[in-house]
Design a protein that fits this description.
alpha/beta, 10 strands, globular
Length: 170
C-alpha cells in the first residue's frame, strides 16, 4: 500500500464518536500507533489507559487518583504513557503504512518525545489521528494548521458518511 497523500485528523466535540470512528476505519489493517481508551468506574469516567495497536501492551497513565501533572480532573503519569506510546509510534514510523494515534490531546502533549514523533509521523504522511476539538495548546493548533492534513469534523449526524470516506482513503 502506498503512502497516503495527506494525514487525516478527526476532530469533534466530546462523545461525538471520534475514537470509535478511528477504530472502525482501521479495522483489519496492520497499523502502528496507539489508543487511549477511557476507564469507567461506577458509570463515571475515571481515567485512561494507553494501548499499543501492534503489540497489545497497555497501562493506565491517567486517573482521578494519580497526582503528577494534572489535566482537568486527571493526574497524568507521562513516563507510563511514554513507556507504551513511544515504542508504538517508533515501530509505526519504521514499519507500518498507517500510524493511528488516538489521540493528540492535552494529556499526550505533556510528552516532548511524543510531540517529536508525531511530527516525524506527519512528515511521512501516514497518520490517521483523533485530535482535541477545542484546545489552546500551541502544538495541537500547529498540527491542525499543517498543509498536509485533512481534518474531518465529526458529529453524530455525519459519523456514518465520514466512516465510509475514511475507509475509502486508507
Amino acid at each position: 500500500m502506498a503512502t497516503m497523500k495527506y494525514n487525516i485528523l478527526i476532530s469533534g466535540p466530546p462523545a461525538s464518536g471520534k475514537s470509535t470512528l478511528l477504530r472502525e476505519a482501521i479495522q483489519n489493517k496492520e497499523v502502528g500507533g496507539f489508543s487511549t481508551p477511557e476507564i469507567r468506574k461506577d458509570g463515571e469516567r475515571w481515567g485512561f489507559k494507553v494501548v499499543d495497536f501492534h503489540t497489545g501492551k497497555e497501562a493506565v497513565f491517567a486517573s482521578m487518583e494519580m497526582k503528577p501533572a494534572v489535566v482537568s480532573k486527571y493526574g497524568v503519569e507521562v513516563d507510563v504513557f511514554e513507556r507504551i506510546a513511544i515504542p508504538a509510534l517508533e515501530w509505526g514510523i519504521e514499519n507500518a503504512n498507517t500510524i493511528a494515534i488516538d489521540e493528540i490531546g492535552n494529556m499526550e502533549v505533556l510528552s516532548e518525545r511524543f510531540k517529536q514523533l508525531v511530527g516525524q509521523a506527519l512528515d511521512a504522511k501516514k497518520v490517521i489521528a483523533t485530535i482535541s476539538f477545542k484546545s489552546k495548546n500551541p502544538f495541537i493548533e500547529k498540527v491542525k494548521q499543517r498543509r498536509d492534513v485533512k481534518i474531518y469534523y465529526l458529529t453524530r449526524v455525519n459519523w456514518t458518511r465520514i466512516l465510509k470516506e475514511l475507509k475509502a482513503e486508507i
